[in-house]
Amino acid sequence: MKSAIKSGLLALAAAALPAVAYAHPTIGEAAGFSHGFAHPISGLDHVLAMVMVGVFAFQLGGRASWLVPTTFVLVMALGGTLGVAGINVPFVETGIALSVVVLGAVVALNVKAPLAAALGIIGLFAIFHGHAHGAEMPENAAGAAYAAGFMVATALLHVAGLTLGYVIGRAGERQGVFVTRTAGGLAAVAGVGLLAGLI
């Protein structure tokens, strides 16, 4: 389990390294990167969903601990491309709110989904999150740098979720289950609030 987590973290870090280089070449690209980086961490919906992706990946264990977050980041980039291109994806905001509900519930219930099903669900939600990031790219931002920013921020939120899962697991079986269920349940309730427009 520990080696799988380490492999997953290394894979995410390796994916992020080329992207980080975009932050420095020119002022325009640096601004694009910073705008992109800020987008996922500026909304409660994105933060909750990304952290739950990481916890879900930890709960599944094995190859899922790196495949789930990596798949999310890559498919999210595709969704971002659709958003930048102005290609309509219906129900984006609803899909994002639903992702918080579903991922929170999956974590709370410790659902052991088959890897293919987990990747399918993650991929679907990644399209919505990526489209929102791409559609809201500032006109003066460098596209590649902006994309690198939101991909790196998302990967770091996944790492936070993986770390949270590990820390909770170290708390002991009984306490860990309680804390995980509570965290997932609170995320799901927040997602319902987002769906209802209360948050």
Topology (SSEs and partners):
Elements lengths: L1 H19 L6 H15 L2 H17 L3 H21 L7 H17 L6 H21 L7 H28 L2 H23 L4
Describe the structure in brief.
It contains eight helices and no strands.
Shape: globular
Terminal Cα separation, in Å? 36 Å
User: How many β-strand stretches?
Assistant: 0
Low-confidence stretches: 4-27
Query: SSE order, as H and E?
Result: HHHHHHHH
- Seen as an oligomer or otherwise, the chain set is single chain
Q: What is the arithmetic mean of pLDDT?
A: 84
Biggest β-sheet strands, sense, barrel = none
Structural class: mainly alpha
Helix content: over 70%
**Cα gyration radius (Å):** 16 Å
- Counting H and I runs of at least 4 residues, what is the number of helices? 8
Strand-residue fraction? under 5%
Signal peptide: 1-21
Protein name: HupE/UreJ family protein
InterPro entries: HupE_UreJ (IPR007038)
Keywords: Membrane, Signal, Transmembrane, Transmembrane helix
Describe this structure as you would to a colleague.
With 199 residues, the chain is mainly alpha-helical. The protein contains eight helices and no strands. The protein is globular and about 50 Å long. The model is unreliable at 4-27 (pLDDT under 50).
Give descriptors for this structure.
199 residues, mainly alpha, 81% helix
